[in-house]
Specification:
Strands 1-2-3-4 form a four-stranded antiparallel β-sheet, with no helix packed on it. The protein has ten helices and four strands; from the N terminus they run αααββααααββααα.
């Protein structure tokens, strides 16, 4: 079902790419993956390590070479003593030599080569974990920029609604002052609030423009239009259960932990490679070479007969290292210390993942609680405003009471909207902390957006 929703979201994004319709998280994430430099860099590194692994495997396969050369030589032979009876006479002659050799070497016992191949596989797995981490980071950055735009828009809408309410209250205070039922203080208080909210509106408009630019930068598009959140979105359903199960998952699934674990395995294999420098190597060698002499050779005298020679050989080559100036011994000591470092790096990564997961879990639980409390506060603020308006109309409340109630109501609205976005981000941060964040998680968030 998630795959179907994901495909439909992408199709919808393609249909909207040339229009001004709103874009959801899945659509923008697909665009960001084709633009974000950090993600594309990790993707290129993965492809490079894949070819590097193939190179290490190639060292275990036969190494076949074909070589050849062709030379033409001019011989000008003049003996010190000429003897026709012994055929020792001067001569000048051109002759050619053409040589071709086909050779092959198959490693039979090369433990260092095999360790290097195993290391390359771990390096490839590391690059996969790094790519997953880059994808999770991009997903989080996109979601943060996306909700920042929605939050800034909600704040601007709330400030404008508050400005409208204050304007109406200001007009009411002026009318009451003109008929003598209120003092000039009410008018001045309303005017002060109106001036303050106008300044806040300017700041909110600029904040929205900045947040939109940040989102545009992530996805590589201009004038993005994020789909807003449903007012009825079930934020409370995101409350996670069982903290320790999240922590236990983090020490296994976190990309940083996986990278550190693979780093330890690579360091251990490096010790084995260093020790293999003390071991003999054994190769199977075979060759076939042919030499073609055109017009004789340098030793054929005056004879100009052409000839050819074919050599074939096969055998094993044994190489036994005896002494390398203590290089191999010190290399073993160096790599052993690097294994110790890799073990500490792994412990550090596990502790960080567990700590980040606990913090994200508690922040999410707190955020869900804040949403519930702010919803109750919003209802109370609405009732308080209605009561103050009624009291103001009948003369038992003054203008400042109404203005304060309005300010409290709209501030609570903004706090509630921000708390909702914080909970949505908190869920993503929790999954990133324990390493289970996936692009399909955006589908769940898309279901909370307006269709």
């Amino acid at each position: 079902m998630k795959r179907i929703l994901w495909a439909l979201s992408i199709i919808w994004g393609i249909a909207c790419c040339t229009s001004t319709c709103a874009q959801n998280l899945v659509t923008l994430f697909d665009a960001a993956k084709n633009f974000d430099a950090a993600y594309l860099s990790a993707s290129a590194q993965y492809r490079a390590n894949r070819y590097k692994a193939d190179q290490a495997w190639g060292a275990l396969l036969p190494n076949v070479n074909l070589s050849g050369n062709s030379a033409h030589t001019f011989t000008d032979y003049t003996p010190d003593t000429i003897s026709t009876s012994q055929n020792v006479v001067p001569y000048q002659r051109w002759y050619g030599t053409h040589v071709a050799t086909l050779s092959a070497i198959q490693p039979l016992y090369r433990p260092g080569f095999y360790d290097a191949y195993l290391q390359s596989k771990r390096l490839l797995a590391q690059s996969v974990a790094q790519l997953v981490g880059a994808e999770q980071d991009l997903l989080l950055r996109l979601s943060q920029a996306y909700f920042d735009v929605l939050s800034s828009k909600d704040s601007l809408d709330s400030i404008r609604a508050q400005k409208t309410a204050i304007t109406e209250q200001f007009a009411s205070a002026k009318r009451n002052f003109e008929v003598g039922s209120a003092t000039i203080t009410d008018t001045r208080e309303a005017q002060a609030r109106l001036d303050l909210i106008s300044a806040q509106e300017i700041a909110a408009e600029n904040d929205q423009r900045v947040k939109k630019l940040a989102l545009d930068q992530v996805v590589g598009q201009s004038n993005t239009q994020p789909t807003p959140l449903l007012a009825s979105a079930a934020i409370e359903s995101l409350s996670p259960k069982n903290l320790e199960s999240w922590v236990d998952t983090s020490v296994q699934a976190s990309p940083n932990v996986q990278i550190a674990q693979l780093g330890l395995e690579i360091a251990t294999l490096e010790v084995s490679r260093a020790k293999s420098a003390h071991l003999p190597t054994l190769d199977l060698a075979a060759s076939m070479g042919g030499t073609r002499n055109v017009g004789g050779t340098a030793n054929s005298g005056t004879s100009s007969l052409s000839s050819h020679l074919l050599n074939k050989s096969i055998g094993v080559v044994l190489n036994v290292p005896l002494f390398s100036g203590f290089v191999a011994q010190n290399r073993v000591l160096e790599t052993t210390e690097l294994v110790d470092k890799a073990e500490h790096d792994l412990d550090y990564a596990k502790r960080n993942a567990a700590q980040a997961t606990r913090a994200a879990y508690l922040n999410l639980i707190s955020g869900v609680g804040q949403v519930g409390a702010l919803r109750a506060a919003l209802s109370s603020s609405q009732l308080a405003l209605e009561s103050n308006l009624l009291g103001y109309n009948v003369g038992v409340r003054v203008n400042i009471d109404v203005l304060n109630s309005q300010s409290q109501l709209y501030q609570t609205q903004r706090d509630l909207a921000n708390a909702k976005y914080s909970v949505l981000m908190g869920q993503l941060k929790l999954k990133q902390a324990n390493g289970t964040l996936q692009p399909n998680d955006l589908v769940e968030l898309n279901n909370m957006l307006k269709p």
